Automatic annotation (TrEMBL), chains A, B, C:
A Pfam family annotated for this UniProt entry: ECH_1
Gene this chain is encoded by: Eci1
MF annotations from Gene Ontology: delta(3)-delta(2)-enoyl-CoA isomerase activity
Pathway as given in its UniProt record: Lipid metabolism; fatty acid beta-oxidation
Assigned EC number: 5.3.3.8
Enzyme class: isomerase
Protein name: Enoyl-CoA delta isomerase 1, mitochondrial
Subcellular location(s) per record: Mitochondrion matrix
InterPro entries: ClpP/crotonase-like_dom_sf, Enoyl-CoA_hyd/isom_CS, Enoyl-CoA_hydra/iso
Sorted UniProt keywords: Acetylation, Fatty acid metabolism, Isomerase, Lipid metabolism, Mitochondrion, Transit peptide
Chief localization: mitochondrion
Subunit structure: Homotrimer.
Length: 278, 278, 278
């Protein structure tokens, strides 16, 4: 870990440490105890196996760093927070690869959803599917006030099914009814609708995002850590325990699903479509 | 099944099949894959044993018809969607009759709530008690924008208790708090309040109901069936499983409740009151 | 029980019985079947062991009184409904004392949350922590329309954790998401925000509280008791059963928590702060 080159605007200047591998840039402000994780995996911060591995390692490092009490998760790429799971990891690969990939997706969620740190999603771009899951797993969600940015668990639109723990996380944020309708329709909500349905907590003009993030984080960090952590754990335990108890079964389900020729076909078609879009 | 005589306005003209027994008129639009079920059991579409049996058979036929992907449930009788369970089936009958009747109520709900088809309630009139349950069991609810039409699980007003699976279905739509208050008070909500509390999803002027129904159905049918069906099943499984696991117990509870002299008395009084209203 | 000296304004004049010990004044209106419990334990109606014992005894008496169908719970002390658990009961006492105290807290909640009577909280002042729990345990909550009065489960701000059944009661009222955020932040909401987040059902100008209370109570008492009671029990059973099943464990948790030197220290600091405020 070296000294940070750049400062997080809106937080006081202070000695910073940073570590950055390929896909995620982490800056740690030791004075405030807040780390900022910026996704910078062009073109769309898709959650590849490498990305997920790096994300988990970063989370673990910060979790074990006593100086770190909160993390801001945001994107370094304009207009996109994260496009979700990398479909190339799900196409034409071996069972071993699917297993490793899915375990990494689970691991990411287990770490993030159970984090002892205050986790704040600063959603400065679109955030479909797995990108939305990351946001939903944080303690608080601020989104850029831009109706062109959308967020949602849109898996059903691709003919795939959001896993039960995506669903559980979603229900814990928006309630059963909004989750049922949104998951069935694979709805992607423009920022104003995302606020209306409770998917995000606040909309902020894009240029004010970091200032707001610092203010929100300060509010959460004003609480004593220990009571807040136990409270968070109490609120999330049921849903976390469900995946822990069914983790291997969930991997088998994923493999069985992704190995179907019909699913492979629709994923290939989807990738072709994405390529043409470029 | 014969050719349909009437078309569902708002859907494209196409070869249609229809079947109609006594109480429910079903029209199937083969081009759109949408069936329309119209309740026409005067005076108030009450859910008699015959009505429920016919409803279940119709649902089963459509469920097994590969061409049918969605159903619109509505009423052919002005001002009333359905008045709910037929109280004459619960008054002065044998234990065998109560058993058969209650099993039919359960069967109707189990089929409707777990349907693989897109189910859309077009509530063009009042919809108390069991009528409300039918609406709540669909995927989406459109109600006529008429404050004279009311909807709700008003069982408590009659001195009876909504069964646990009515309650579970209600909680899944409006959440625990609104359900707790509404069930205790036996609230019947005029359409605008029903929208406010989330009991229905949209209000539409009565003359635009079918046009809107076609648009909503088209939106839901734009999704691939398979992923949508698995998602729906995932969302509703817990609640469905609960009745399946306690079905005989639930029948016994109903019989024990309905056999009480105090309950028989209040049901008789209620029926007298209804007769005088006519 | 003697004749009541004062009448509850807004309810018809009628023979009344009253009983009052030290901390809670109870008036029973036999004509309406409504009892009014007024907390009058200066300075802030804190829930001491004595207060809780008296509360439980009063609840039991009224529960067993066939003439009593509903209770209004309010405060006789200006600006405060109840300040919550009495911290002096949790500071520097013996394990036996902590056990007895915590069992009384549990007992109060078990009786109130499962009461067969209609329970109406008339929140005419601030209501943090345990005070908020009392309000949340009622069937309906009216709060004075005064932004200076706040309500919420703010335990986390004191470095302590709201027990799981406080949390369950809260989730049943406001849903998982609002509860998760509010409990982590230990949020105290001014009355208008409390309404917005669903913590209370209505705001009423302070001088109209009793009139409104009488109207709300009349609405609830218009329902037949038996069906309403079974419905209430059905809605609350899961959450009640959870504490009943884990009651001893919950006591042990409380003792282990409160016995920690760090917790004792922060409670002492908090008490010092309160003393200085005076």
């Amino acid at each position: 870990w070296g000294r940070a080159v750049r400062q997080l605007p809106g937080l006081p200047l202070a000695p910073c440490r940073a570590f950055s591998n390929n896909k995620i840039q982490v800056e740690m402000n030791e004075s405030s105890g807040v780390a900022t994780m910026k996704f910078k995996s062009p073109p769309v911060n898709s959650l590849s196996l490498d990305f997920l591995t790096e994300f988990c390692i970063s989370l673990e490092k910060l979790e074990n760093d006593r100086a770190c009490r909160g993390i801001v998760i945001t994107s370094a790429i304009p207009k996109i927070f994260s496009s979700g799971l990398d479909i190339t990891e799900m196409c034409g690969k071996s069972t071993e690869h699917y297993t490793e990939f899915w375990r990494a997706v689970q691991e990411m969620w287990l770490r993030l959803y159970s984090s002892n740190m205050v986790t704040l999603a600063v959603i400065n771009g679109s955030s479909p599917a797995g990108g939305c899951l990351i946001a939903l797993s944080c303690d608080y969600r601020i989104m850029a006030e831009n109706p062109k940015y959308t967020i949602g668990l849109n898996e059903a639109q691709l003919g795939i099914v959001a896993p039960f723990w995506f669903k559980d996380t979603f229900v814990n944020v928006v309630g059963q009814r909004v989750a049922e309708r949104s998951l069935q329709l694979g709805s992607l909500y423009p920022a104003p609708e995302a606020l209306k349905f409770g998917i995000v907590d606040e909309l902020v003009p894009e240029e004010k995002l970091q200032e707001k993030a610092a203010a929100v984080m300060a509010q959460w960090l004003a609480l004593p850590d220990h009571a807040r952590q136990i409270t968070k754990s109490m609120m999330r335990k049921t849903v976390l325990d469900r995946l822990v108890a069914h983790r291997e079964e969930d991997i088998k389900n994923f493999i069985s699903f992704v190995s179907k020729e019909s699913i492979q076909k629709s994923l290939r078609m989807y990738m072709e479509m994405l390529k043409k879009k470029k």
